[in-house]
Amino acid sequence: MFSLIQLESFVAVAEELHFGAAAARLNMTQPPLSRQIQLLERELNAQLFLRSSRRVELTEAGQTLLPSARRILDMCRKTDLDVRRVATGDAGSIVIGYTAIAGQSELPAILRLAREHMPGVSLVLREAVSTDQLDMLATGAIDVGLLRPIVSRSGLVTRPLLEDRLVVALPAGHELLTGRGVLLRQLDGLPLMMYSSAEARYFHDLVTRLFDSAGAHANVTQFASQVPALLAFVAAGLGVSLVPASTMEWASPGVGFEELAGPAGLADLNHADLHIAWNEASMNRAVAKLLPLVLAGHGDGADATGGDAPDAGRDTEAGTGADGGSATDAGSGTGAEGGSATDAGPGTGTGAGPGSGGG
């Protein structure tokens, strides 16, 4: 049976694709690192890396092992932290799932709350799309999720954190950047950078409904699962996109924004709100302490007072839309793990960014 040190060695090499960098990351020299990889390959009877003098690549077997190895290591770390919490009382851990947008908007404020009020609690951060967060909440792989309203799941509770809307993202200098807003019909025929229907269905369906409501044609030319990837397409001049207004503060200088203008009822349809979700059966006392702090900061503290925060909000089971969130490669978030809550990135807000046509 392979060991945890073998899995840690494998993941480090797989992520760095360089034995020297992986050895430095693990505070060891290359020979013992290579030995651990050899032992793992012998145990699995499979070659995990293609090595040459110039590069290191994952084989198909290595690509298959990598997500499982990450999950095993994450679970081991979480188990270690959970045992320590039981032994010490106030100490513990909370695993927070978050989408790419939540990582830039609401997550930093939550980390600051935890640092101020729960200094003994360690936070583990996992970036993931909303559908994946649903599954992780159900299985206990994460304790709290920051996600878009999603299909109903029994036992999961959500509360709104951030009211958001879609705005038009355009390449800097585009003729539609006038400050007067953009009609969806004006986007008819323009190359549209669109959300993946599989990994970002919430946003995909919302954009589709908005275009249909205006009788406009969505000329989709590129797909991505993550808003930063869509903004990269836009900044490169490949087309336009509809993105949450909360992205305007941190978008690259090569992107300008305009508010969506349209017929009556558009504002009622154009909602891209962010929610916090948890499993109402959670026994994690640290979660029970964190949730009232977060909800009180969003005007919902009355229902989340007391120690047993997972009981708060039983009237609101996980939402009514579909999914959206992050991913890498244009997508997939493999997760970003962290320790105690520290200042993490820019603060919250939805102010207008460069070239924005609205507030």
TrEMBL record:
Region (Disordered) location: 302-359
Limits of the HTH lysR-type domain: 2-59
Keyword set includes DNA-binding: yes
Transcription regulation is among the record's keywords: yes
Biased composition (Gly residues): 346-359
InterPro entries, per database record: LysR_HTH_N, LysR_subst-bd, WH-like_DNA-bd_sf, WH_DNA-bd_sf
Keywords for this protein: DNA-binding, Transcription, Transcription regulation
Family, as annotated: Belongs to the LysR transcriptional regulatory family.
Name of protein: LysR substrate-binding domain-containing protein
